[in-house]
Description:
The complex is a heterodimer of chains A (about 110) and B (about 120).
Chain A: E1 4-7, E2 10-13, E3 19-25, E4 33-38, E5 45-49, E6 53-54, E7 62-67, E8 70-75, E9 85-90, E10 97-98, E11 102-106
Parallel strand pairs in A: 2-11
Antiparallel strand pairs in A: 1-3, 3-8, 4-5, 4-9, 5-6, 7-8, 9-10, 9-11
Chain B: E1 3-7, E2 10-12, E3 18-25, E4 34-39, E5 45-51, E6 58-60, E7 68-73, E8 78-83, E9 92-100, E10 103-108, E11 112-116
Parallel strand pairs in B: 2-11
Antiparallel strand pairs in B: 1-3, 3-8, 4-5, 4-9, 5-6, 7-8, 9-10, 9-11
Amino acid sequence: xxxxxxxxxxxxxxxxxxxxxxxxxxxxxxxxxxxxxxxxxxxxxxxxxxxxxxxxxxxxxxxxxxxxxxxxxxxxxxxxxxxxxxxxxxxxxxxxxxxxxxxxxxx
Amino acid sequence: xxxxxxxxxxxxxxxxxxxxxxxxxxxxxxxxxxxxxxxxxxxxxxxxxxxxxxxxxxxxxxxxxxxxxxxxxxxxxxxxxxxxxxxxxxxxxxxxxxxxxxxxxxxxxxxxxxxxxx
Lengths: 107, 118
């Protein structure tokens, strides 16, 4: 199975900050990568698929990049509603696998 | 409007069985692959299983292979997850979710809680 790692595991940030989260796959997955946001007690929300394609309705401050094994999620100007946990997921091959998550909280 | 509604969760003893259901509406159910994803209390997301639109292809995480079985009834627009030989580590909220064009879609159920405990 393809193993996904994320860094950092958590960090504190302030509203207005530019935030970058990294995801790495244990083998090349082309661009078959999705990013999700999850808030406590809620189902995950798809932000980005195909590594860089913004899901409909997702604010443009979110962006994704990368291919192969290394990917990033960037939030250009953090808003209060963006404090949450973020997960990457590869869907290049089954079993699909998620990263362990990155929690973004208030500094 | 796409809706996914899970049911069937509850408390079960170790070694027991449970069948989860996911009732789908608002889209051509048989045209889309579906997945189950779970989340243990306070933990991250874990992909569990997926099934093709026709039901002819199924896939499992190593952690559930041989114990869980995914299926679907396209005439009833319902997805199932049969869970046998349950263990404490299977305790989680189980979500069903939809695929589209080969990638995850942004439709998830509200989740159903499975608790495995004596």
